[in-house]
Amino acid sequence: MLASLTNFILSGESLSDAFGYKDDYLYISFLFLCLPLGWINRCSYLFGLPPFSKLANAVQLLLTLRLVSLAADTREYLSGPLSKIDLFPNNYSRFLDHQQGSLLSRFFQYTCFSYCFLGLFTGPFFRAKTYNDMICNPNLYRIPYRHGLIKVIFYLPLYISVHLILAKLFPFDFVGTEEYYAHEWGALFRLAYFVPYCVAFRWRFYIAWTISVASCILAGLGAYPESAKCRPGIGPTCNPKTEDNTVDYKTVENLEVWEIETSTTIDGPLQHWNMTVQSFFYYYIYKSFPNRTFGRLVTFALSAYWHGLNLGYYIAFFMFMFCITAQYCFIRFTQPLRVKGTEKVWLVLDFLCAWRAYEYNGFAFLLLTPEKIFRAWASVYYIGHYITVVWVLIGAFQLLFGTLFMKSKKKLA
Fold first, then answer.
1. How many CB atoms are closer than 10 A to CB 291?
2. What is the 3-state secondary structure (H, E, C) of 113-141?
């Protein structure tokens, strides 16, 4: 409630006008909401308070995204179409585009959106525009949902079965024990153990997100015509056709399991995993920076901060960046060998490399504390680090020699 009240006060034009923060409004709101996320929630022990439960932490995570998006959307709406603040390229995607301005002036509606139970504990993330479209829809109970619901929950029994079996056979509590490090197969066993465990870990999220998206579909949240060309978390990007009677729930779509599990690049699963939150970080964080490299660094850093203050999150996210760079260096270097007839071989090789990188970084993401992380990496001889550094260096030399070769060729010409 305090977070909603703070952001509601900040959303008024008078405050931003008084202090001259028109163009920095998004960043002010972001700081007001994200600092409590880290220092009150996760450092409560410093104030003599008991630690937050996992459930309270989950609510705080999603609440932060909702309020930051609402701050940015409100500011964009109040700034007008000529403002430098333009998060979405199409006017239809703009916040409060059809007489929904009541949300700006009524604290009760503001709070209802903030604490709407749909997606509050697990996601998906959705904007206030999507929430208002659901609340203000006079035909909400006539929206067909069976086809969309069946499509989402069809594989739910499979997700549950795979997770329960693997979690039983490969418990995470075993990682880090003396028995784990003393196994007779050595580093090979330690690397292999993380393969089924990481499957169990991510399929647990498949279960939670599938159930959560199903609840959104049953409530009619995110139901738009297909011609509206919705994006996960963002909603419609164009005005739907009047004769279009189809129903699309892509606004609350949070994952594409087949694309994740068959991805052959390291950054591939990131585009299909927790897609609504990915949209938040892309539109509200990454697009705020004109420099793509700096924007990517800030986005990864804030994503790690959003997950928690544990050093393991930061190590894992920045290691991911180097692994992504290394894989593209590998693909570019081997491009002359990727001739017709060998496509499947290279796809399998890329697939194996990508998922081994995920599992290697999983040591940092799951163990969290530096002493546990580096002990685990040392037990497999830092093999992932060496491979990453080698391919980044090869890629750098390839670009350097390619640039020098092109310059010398131009001079001779």
1. 9
2. HHCCCCCCCCCCCCCHHHHHHHHCCCCHH
The string of pLDDT tens digits covering residues 131-141 is 888 887 888 88
Domain that holds residue 315: 270-413
Confirm if 246 and 225 have CB atoms less than 8 A apart.
yes
Angle at 247 between CA 246 and CA 250, to 5 degrees: 130
State the DSSP code for 248.
B
Q: Domain total for the chain? A: 1
Any domain includes 146: no
How far is 44 from 39, CA to CA, in rounded Å? 7
Cα separation values, 37 from 56, 168, 284, 290, 386, Å: 11, 33, 17, 27, 35
pLDDT per residue over 327-352, tens digit each?
999 999 999 888 888 889 999 999 99
Q: Is residue 253 part of a domain?
A: no
In eight-state DSSP terms, residue 283 is: I
Q: Is the Cα torsion angle 89, 91, 93, 96 positive or negative in sign?
A: positive
Q: Strand, coil or helix: what is 163?
A: helix
pTM metric for this prediction: 0.83
CA distances from 333 to 56, 399, 402 (A): 47, 10, 12
Check residue 251 and report its DSSP letter: G
Residues ≥6 apart with Cβ < 8 Å to 75:
11, 16, 25, 26, 29, 85
